[in-house]
Amino acid sequence: MAATLTAGPASAEDFVCGDFTIGFDFSALDTLTPILRGEGDAAAIDAALELPSVQAIVRKQQQVHDDRSTPGRLREELIAWQAGSEAGIENRVYPFPDDETLGAMEAALNALRDDPGALMAPACARLAAYLPAGYTTPLNSVFVMGVNSAGFAFGDPTLYVGFHRMFADLPGLELVLVHELYHGAQGAMRPIPDGLEDALSEADWRVLQYLNYGYLEGAAMWVANPADFEGEGDMLSYFQERLERGLNEPGNLFTLFEASLYQLANDPNTDPRRHYFAGFTGEERNYNVGYIIAREIEANYGRERLAELMRESPTAFYRLYAEAENRDGPELSATFLAILDRVDAAIAATGIDPVPDP
Predict the structure, then answer these.
(1) Burial group, residue 98, by CB count within 10 angstroms (0-12, 13-18, 19+)
(2) Where are the alpha helices (DSSP H) in 285-353?
(3) Which 8-state DSSP code applies to residue 50?
(4) What is the rounded CA–CA span in Å between residue 254 and residue 318?
(5) How many whole angstroms separate alpha carbon 61 and alpha carbon 145?
(6) Rounded (5°) CA angle 163-212-323
(7) Are 345 and 320 in contact, with CB atoms under 8 Å apart?
(8) Three-state secondary structure call for residue 290
(9) pLDDT tens digits for 91-124?
(10) Separation CA 282–CA 291 (nearest Å)
(11) For every one of its 358 residues, what pLDDT tens digit does the chain have, with 9 covering 90 and above?
(12) Rounded to an integer, what distance in angstroms lies between the CA atom of residue 47 and that of residue 300?
């Protein structure tokens, strides 16, 4: 039997990145690995389910499986793994790796524990170049498995890496880390203001959320630009090829983005999840829309101006692009701009600061 991932501490020392630190949390990997290899008992599973890092797996998989992803369901699947009967799990919710993959993950994780700077130093340099002046909020990187995503965040200074998808592709892992770390910084600098959702109409809130997703993902994708990375790993190639496909049809991408925006603004019966899944999952076309916008903001106004958008309403991201004199990208239509005006007016009418102090 291969050695477990529990050889090292659940967390490594924080990595110092300029005026802030990046923490590491390996507790999900260390706790779940013995269970997946048939070790321990039910008490070990119950202890794992108490960990915030493991609870994040349930939360993330709810985006794919809705109410099928629950602590109870995860417990059932872990019981099957522990008993060696994982092959009989029907309609799996949690894509855990097999024992051979776990062994390969161990080697990669031990290397990261031994020399975090090999990965984090270049990631830090790329990330710090796009943070607002004076940024000091610590970020935390949590390594998990059993999710469909290579990386994700929930709008706070914590990011998650699906290590089972990224361990064999160091450049791809660096890309995902930078992308998700940037999300952590975005969440730290622009928390969701209390009361704004209740104060806005349902349609205006849905539009604001959609615009925000476009800013968050587009800016992070530009900061962790797949075209800037070199390597032959499967995940890096996937990100690079997806970007190339998107840049080959910018007009179509912007048209589809605006179509969803218009329906969210005007059709009370539309399901916002349909639009999110269509634009921000799978081919993730809206990432490319935001990437083009972020690229043109930096080209026209400078990197510092792009960084400052962390402290502004999402609508500013699109307005800067629309007003850029030397824009290399599709024009935003009058309808798109009118929706921005409508949302900004609705926010102003609430009297709530859309960008409260972090």
Answers:
(1) exposed
(2) 285-301, 303-308, 314-323, 334-350
(3) T
(4) 12
(5) 11
(6) 125
(7) no
(8) helix
(9) 999 999 999 999 999 888 988 888 888 889 999 9
(10) 16
(11) 333 333 344 556 789 999 999 999 999 999 999 999 999 999 999 999 999 999 999 999 998 888 899 999 999 999 999 999 999 999 999 999 999 999 999 888 988 888 888 889 999 999 999 999 889 999 999 999 999 998 898 888 999 999 998 888 889 999 999 999 999 999 888 767 889 999 999 999 999 999 999 999 999 999 999 999 999 988 899 999 999 999 999 999 999 999 999 999 999 999 999 999 999 988 999 999 999 999 999 999 999 999 999 999 999 999 999 999 999 999 999 999 999 999 999 999 999 987 766 6
(12) 52
Q: For residue 21, list its beta bridge partners.
A: 16
Alpha carbons 149 and 99: distance in angstroms, whole number: 20
Using the structure block, give the residue that is written with the tokens 């070790």. 39
Helix axes 27-36, 52-65, angle to 10 degrees: 80
Residue partners of 46: CB distance under 8 A and separation at least 6: 75
Could you give the CA distance from residue 44 to residue 35 in angstroms, rounded to a whole number?
8
User: How many helices and strands, by DSSP H and E, does the chain display?
Assistant: 17, 5
Q: Tally the residues of the chain.
A: 358
The rounded distance, in Å, linking the Cα atoms of 224 and 329 is: 20
Nearest to 190 by CA among 357, 320, 19, 22: 357
Gap between the Cα atoms of 354 and 262, Å rounded? 22
Question: Are the C-beta atoms of residues 22 and 181 closer than 8 Å to each other?
Answer: yes
d(CA 353, CA 351): 7
C-alpha distances in Å from residue 102, one per residue of 6, 24, 67, 139, 327: 12, 19, 28, 26, 47
| Beta strand residue intervals within the chain, DSSP E | 15-17, 20-25, 139-144, 151-153, 158-162
Q: What type of residue sits at position 235?
A: M
Quick check: helix, strand or coil at residue 116?
coil
SS3 label, residue 85:
coil
